[in-house]
Structure formats: C-alpha cells, structure tokens
Amino acid sequence: MDIDAVIMMIVALVTVWGGLLGAVLHLSRHPEDTSE
C-alpha cells in the first residue's frame, strides 16, 4: 500500500475508535436517566 493510504487508514481508525472510546467514557460518567 502507498504511504498516503496507510496514513489515511490510521487517521480513520483513530477517528472511529477514539469516538467510540469517548462515547463510552461519556456514558459511564453521565449515565442516561431512564426513570421516566
């Protein structure tokens, strides 16, 4: 693979997994209120 493709793949993986990790951390610190 070309070096540009490798860099774009790494950026995409960091974006996806970083967003997932951020969402999990946010939900663990601020759980949803389902008492309605």
UniProtKB/TrEMBL annotation:
The chain crosses the membrane at residues 6-27. It comes from the Bacteria. InterPro entries: MaAIMP_sms (IPR031596). Keywords: Membrane, Transmembrane, Transmembrane helix. NCBIfam families: MetS_like_NSS (NF033493). This is Methionine/alanine import family NSS transporter small subunit.
